[in-house]
Amino acid sequence: MPNLRLPHQWFIACDATELRRRPIARTIQDTPLVLFRDGAGRAAALLDRCPHRNVPLSAGHMVDGLLQCSYHGWRFDGAGVCRVVPALTSEPDRKARHATTFPTVEQDGFVWVYSTPDVTPLRQPYRFPAVDRRYATIRRSVTMPGLMRHALENALDVPHTAFLHGGLFRTAARRHAIEVRVTRTASGADAEYVGEPRPSGLVGRVLSPGGGVVEHVDRFIMPCVAQVEYCLGDASHLLNTTAMTPVSESETRLWAVIQLRLPVPSRLVAPLVTPIAMRILRQDAAILGLQAKAIRRFGGEDFTSTEIDVLGPHIWRLLAAAADGGEAPAPFEHRVTMRV
Ligand code: FES
Ligand SMILES: [Fe+2]
């Protein structure tokens, strides 16, 4: 399966707090970008290449709300229009002097960039769930080695949790056969675990000290969101939503927003949950690094799957169709039994 470039999609370029007075360089799908705030404080993204002599614009700085190139001082606004060519006596603005511009939206505390330049976007960026004040919210960003589609599968893959994260989430010893409903639509794929007992590891004990049955749904939302939802009665609710940015073939950036309601005051939740979440993410990063290295060494993927690899193959089919610009695969629903 070749690497996929997805046109007409929104990805997170940076946390909104990272973007202040200086331009910053970011890469999405191997495309170098410069991000900055214009005179009105609006976030903007241009191709990180000056139209004049191709110096990276991210090496420049802001002057009067315009991004000034560090070589000859051309200045660009947030729409990529060349506003100043120092020493030029005629009008600076010409179409050929425009910098390539990527639509940009600041939303949910993130700066989102559209993957196709110089167009009106066909859709809006993903919106993170809105929760009330009983929830604690933990935001973390980490880098995973390898391709986005492998990181997406990993985030929604249940069978690895008893092994790679043994004891933290599930344990390999105490396992129950349960039914999983798998649904694919044009906009994503879900796996719903029916009648799953509370996970026996540390995370399960934190979520529900008294045990019980959980409602558990894993969701892939096109093109870059992995969401894991656990409900334990009325008291506990976990929503772990991760938006992923395909930086390059060897790097995927994860933007995780964990929203959690527990039967304890919400201020106690983050100190309890953050170290566990970070440990799980580090274990995932290590295994994805080994996977990426092996794929590279053997010159490509050669995967085999079983029916309990419930979401990976659907994620890959949806992404492949979006990369082609072709039609989404037909809706799909089936049930499998899995030991969890
Ligand atoms: S290279 Fe940017 S102004 Fe000349
Ligand atoms: Fe994992």
Q: What does the model show?
A:
The chain has 340 residues and is α+β, with helices and mostly antiparallel strands. Helix content is 18%, strand content 36%. The chain has helices at 148-155, 161-164, 202-207, 269-297, 312-324, and strands at residues 10-15, 24-28, 31-37, 43-47, 61-63, 66-68, 75-76, 82-84, 101-102, 104-107, 110-114, 136-145, 177-185, 188-197, 213-221, 225-232, 236-248, 251-261, 332-339. The strands form four sheets. The protein has an eight-stranded antiparallel beta sheet, with helices on one face. A four-stranded antiparallel beta sheet has the order 2-3-4-9, with no helix packed on it. Helix 1 packs antiparallel against helix 5. It is elongated and about 80 Å long. FE2/S2 (inorganic) cluster is lined by residues 50, 52-53, 55, 69, 71-72, 74.
What characteristics describe this protein?
single chain, 340 residues, alpha+beta, 8-stranded antiparallel sheet, 4-stranded antiparallel sheet, 36% strand, binds FE2/S2 (inorganic) cluster, binds fe (ii) ion
Outline the secondary-structure elements.
Elements: E1 10-15, E2 24-28, E3 31-37, E4 43-47, E5 61-63, E6 66-68, E7 75-76, E8 82-84, E9 101-102, E10 104-107, E11 110-114, E12 136-145, H1 148-155, H2 161-164, E13 177-185, E14 188-197, H3 202-207, E15 213-221, E16 225-232, E17 236-248, E18 251-261, H4 269-297, H5 312-324, E19 332-339
Antiparallel strand pairs: 1-11, 2-3, 3-4, 4-9, 5-6, 6-7, 7-8, 10-11, 12-18, 13-14, 13-19, 14-15, 15-16, 16-17, 17-18
Helix pairs in contact: 1-5
Bound molecules: FE2/S2 (inorganic) cluster and fe (ii) ion.
Fe (ii) ion binds at residues 154, 160-161, 164-165, 280, 284.
